[in-house]
Design a protein that fits this description.
Blueprint: H1 8-13, E1 17-25, H2 29-41, E2 46-49, H3 58-61, H4 82-87, H5 97-110, E3 117-118, E4 123-129, E5 134-139, E6 144-152, E7 174-177, E8 192-196, H6 200-212, E9 215-220, E10 227-228, H7 236-244, H8 246-255, H9 274-287, H10 303-320, H11 324-331, E11 344-345, H12 348-351, E12 357-361, E13 367-370, E14 374-377, E15 381-383, E16 386-389, H13 398-401, E17 405-406, H14 413-416, E18 435-437, H15 450-470, E19 476-478, H16 480-495, H17 526-538, E20 544-546, H18 562-570
Parallel strand pairs: 1-2, 1-6, 2-3, 4-17, 6-18, 7-16, 8-9, 8-16, 9-12, 10-11
Antiparallel strand pairs: 4-5, 5-6, 13-14, 14-15, 19-20
Bound molecules: NADP nicotinamide-adenine-dinucleotide phosphate (NAP).
Length: about 575
């Protein structure tokens, strides 16, 4: 191995480099399933490295008050194993973070995965060595690995964003980011709490913090839509329905555009009269959950249709919130419904009727600084004992870039993504052979029910690695041409939705100062994406360059164009 690839730490540890076929980074939903597939199905030597001291990924870190999944529990599950589906019983319509962590521990224990997970190791660099065709991976703790295949399973929302406010370090109280919540919990009893942020996380945290805090001040920069989750225990009848209908549910979540267990209506907003439309919205509101946006087909695409849905939600907010000024602030929403990730809630708007809760508009009067005593806006200083940052994440690219990945000829991922993330299928990047990015930018990921997107990626990567192993092909690498075509297809798909009406979202990287404004996820729909990926695999990995076989032959893929495949797949499924 050329000396240049070895850092000082690695030189010290040269004697104990763990050599593997595959290394997986992260022990959440993706990492666990990828470990199972590569170890038990393909028969490779595999390890997972995980920064936390337990499995769970996103759910290991996000333990903030009210943390709960917005996908329905029965669909927020692995579907690869009928046995696991049968054995595990979710207790509520939406799983709370503790139950998701218990579920992932149950799966990891049942499949005997933990023996191949190295906990408490945070990867700090990954470097490709072309002469050996291996990845050299180092952790902050000084452990070193060498592997043929490197799979990132680091999640899309795992790199926290704590905005830089002058004076932050001078604050005399406690402060926490929701995504790095202390495992022992935080006691708000008798405390004056300030929460910055009203995204999906903030909307979940507000009602729970308000229950015990002496006073809660919510600092809102952008008002947000939210629909009631209508959470509750799952009845025995529903559990029986699940047991009897697993195959149909699996079919639904794998064929709908966003992987949820409901079908998007074919009806359009203006297909029905006002009274009928109101009734449909009312029923969807009462039923609760993400299905609200599926009650008409055109809410995500037609601004006029969207305006009608938005108006319904704003009227609902006004009917709940008693103080007219607070209601004005909460309904002064600057983007179409669902162009930012649409939250669902339990008593979010109702919480503003409590005497111990105030809403502060930091759009008209932004936060200027944090003082020793609290938060200072242009208008006032708010004295606080605890500040909660529900300020989101450096989404999608953040978790990958902090791995310091260096590919062929020393090219750095950070450099080639300087103007925004580019990849082929969200899975591979030219110059980074045998590196696979599960739910990477350019794939449906965050626009889909995550476990559905994860299973599809993991299974595709597993098949791809099996293909390489079976045919003794040394490497696979996306070509620049296929990447460029995919990036333009990703943009094309976003542009037919209303997403570009809200360019200030994390989907565009706009929440991080200096981050390039590029729409990151694939909005073409999970069903269509799956069809494209399947066709690419069937066509012997068209759009990828395959390395030499062990006999020195270069594998040649058929010469069908990526454009043709994408075009053929466009008819195979609706968009998001
Ligand atoms: P987010 O959607 O990015 O929201 C961050 C909030 O912090 C926004 O209200 C933002 O205001 C505010 N903020 C950021 N910097 C600020 C500043 N300098 N001053 C004032 N306000 C500031 O983050 P999130 O709520 O953590 O959600 C991120 C994603 O995680 C979600 O979209 C969702 O995909 C996922 N999530 C899922 C669940 C679930 O399934 N239950 C729960 C939580 C989160 P602006 O809007 O003005 O930028």
């Amino acid at each position: 191995m050329p000396d240049g690839v070895l850092s000082n730490q690695k030189k010290i540890n040269q004697g104990r480099i763990t050599k593997l076929d595959a290394l997986i980074i992260g022990a959440g939903f993706s990492g666990l399933y990828q470990l199972l597939c590569l170890r038990d199905k393909v028969g490779l030597s595999v390890k997972v490295v995980e920064a936390g001291d337990g499995v769970g990924g996103t759910w290991y870190w996000n333990r903030y008050p009210g943390a709960r999944c917005d996908s329905e529990s029965h669909s927020y599950s692995y579907y690869f194993s009928d046995e696991i589906l049968k054995e595990w019983k979710w207790s509520e319509r939406y799983p709370g973070h503790a139950e998701v962590v218990r579920y992932l521990n149950f799966v990891a224990d049942k499949l005997d995965l933990k023996r191949d997970i190295n906990f408490n190791l945070r990867v700090c660099s990954a470097t490709y060595n072309a002469s050996e065709n291996v990845w050299a991976v180092e952790t902050e703790q000084g452990e070193c690995f060498e592997c043929t295949y490197l799979i990132t399973a680091v999640g899309c929302l795992s790199s926290t964003n704590i905005p830089t406010f002058p004076g932050h370090e001078s604050f005399e109280g406690e402060w926490y980011h929701t995504g790095q919540w202390p495992h022992e919990g935080v006691d708000f009893t008798g405390k004056r709490v300030g929460q910055i942020g009203t995204g999906s996380t903030g909307i979940q945290a507000v009602p729970v913090i308000a229950e015990t805090a002496k006073h809660l001040t919510v600092f809102q920069r952008t008002a947000n839509y939210s629909v009631p989750a209508k959470n509750g225990p799952l009845s025995k009848e529903f559990q029986e329905y699940l047991d009897a209908n697993r195959a149909d549910i699996k079919e639904t979540i794998r064929t709908t555009p966003n992987g949820h267990p409901f079908v998007i209506s074919e009806r359009k907003v203006f297909d029905v009269n006002d009274a009928e439309r109101e009734k449909i919205f009312e029923e969807a509101w009462e039923h609760g959950g993400l299905g609200f946006r599926a009650c008409f087909q055109d809410i995500a695409f037609d601004k006029n249709a969207n305006d009608v849905a938005a108006d319904f939600i704003k009227r609902k907010i006004r009917s709940i919130v008693k103080d007219p000024k607070t209601a004005d602030l909460l309904t002064d929403i600057d983007h179409p419904y669902a162009t930012k990730r649409p939250p669902i809630d339990t008593n979010y708007f109702e919480t503003y009727n409590r005497d111990n809760v105030d809403l502060v508009d930091v759009r008209s009067s932004p936060i200027e600084c944090i003082t020793p005593k609290g938060v200072k806006t242009g208008n006032a200083e708010y004295e606080l004992d605890i500040i909660v940052f529900a300020t989101g994440f450096d989404a999608m690219t953040g978790p990958l870039l902090r791995l310091n990945i260096e590919g062929r000829d020393g090219i750095k991922l950070a450099d080639i993504w300087e103007a925004g993330p580019k990849s082929y299928l969200g899975l591979q990047i030219p110059g980074f052979p045998n590196l696979f990015t599960i739910t990477g930018p350019g794939s449906p990921s965050v626009l889909c029910n995550m476990p559905v997107a994860i299973e599809q990626h993991v299974e595709w990567v597993t098949d791809c690695i099996s293909f390489l192993e079976d045919n003794k092909i040394a490497s696979i690498e996306a070509t620049k041409d296929s990447m460029d075509k995919w990036v333009s297809h990703v943009n094309e798909c976003a542009d037919v939705t209303l997403m570009p009406h809200a360019k200030h979202t994390w989907y565009y990287g706009a929440n991080i100062p200096g981050k390039p404004r590029v729409f990151m996820p694939y909005a073409g729909g999970m069903a269509r994406y799956r069809a494209i990926c399947d066709d690419i695999a069937k066509q012997k990995y068209i759009g990828f360059k395959l390395g030499e076989t062990d006999t020195g032959d270069v594998w040649s893929a058929p010469s069908i164009s990526v454009d043709d495949l994408v075009e053929a797949a466009m008819v195979k499924g609706p968009a998001v």
